[in-house]
Amino acid sequence: MRSNVPAPRGTTAAPAASVEHLSKIYGTGDAQVVALNDITVEIMPGQLTAVMGPSGSGKSTLMHCIAGLDRPTSGRALIGQTDVATLKDRDLTRLRRERIGFVFQQFNLVPTLTARENILLPLAIAGRKPDPDWYDEVLRAVDLADRLTHKPSQLSGGQQQRVACARALVGRPDIIFADEPTGNLDSVSAVEILQFLRRAVDDLGRTVVMVTHDPYSASYADRALFLADGRIVDDVSHPTHEIVMTTMAHLDPRRIDRASIPQSPSDLDPTPVSV
Fold it and tell me: What does the pLDDT look like over 71-117, one tens digit per residue?
């Protein structure tokens, strides 16, 4: 089992994010839970990295520690060269606003605001104006120009998640964290979001870290990190659906229901969807 994972071979750029000997422990005594156990890993820029593992493996905790949503018990969590674990609350809030984008399973849109207002909300809170050219590019990427005046209740689940993706991108963050971004979506909408995240990396030059339990979603990634019992146990470049299925089944065969997982992309999306 490997808890210390360097950057993939052939990469020379500085990491977009990294953790060094990171541990996270909840509770004490008999109630103590070691969520992360001495992890060292680098997330390289310009890539979509999937973080996978059985329930309770520590994958969401790892994302939360890197993103500054939770503080580690020991070790370092860095965005670029900034150790987020050492920042005071005000500086941490500023870093999350200016350098990090978030996409969550529950969309987290404000129901009384329009799609446009939801997209621009983080910039409005920070007192910043959007870069017009970048804003237009983001809108083209999410393909929601005809829905900008609609409120969340007037949008489908896939459209709401695309609004959330645009909101994460509009501030041009260094890195985007997506926590189970397709978990509440039907299969067609899920493919739309996965294609968008792929385009955010390939066409818009972003870095994306996606926590997921779904082998098909992970097949969109450049790299898949597999966690078990709070440690990184495998690191796969260019993961395929089949490789991810095999690796996950090896980690915890009880939690893999093969009948419920598409066996090929065509099972999930017979017609390619553009975003």
Answer: 999 999 999 999 998 999 999 998 998 899 999 888 899 999 999 99
Task: Provide the edge-to-edge strand list for the sheet that holds 175-179.
Answer: 100-104, 175-179, 208-211, 48-52, 223-228, 231-237
pLDDT tens by residue, 207-251 = 999 999 899 999 999 999 999 999 999 999 999 999 999 888 887
Look at the alpha carbons of 120, 44, 63, 255 in this order and tell me if their dihedral is positive or negative.
Answer: positive
CA distance 193 to 200: 10
Q: What backbone torsions phi and psi does residue 153 show, to the nearest 5 degrees?
A: -65, -15
Contact 208, 49 (CB under 8 A): yes
What do you get for the CA distance between the two ends of the chain, in Å? Answer: 39
Complete domains list, the chain, with CATH? 4-255 (3.40.50.300)
**Which contacts (CB < 8 Å, 24+ apart) does range 28-36 have?**
34/229, 34/230, 35/61, 35/230, 36/61, 36/62, 36/65, 36/72, 36/230
| pLDDT tens figures, 128-158 | 888 999 999 898 888 888 899 999 999 999 9
Q: Is pLDDT above 50 for 5? A: no
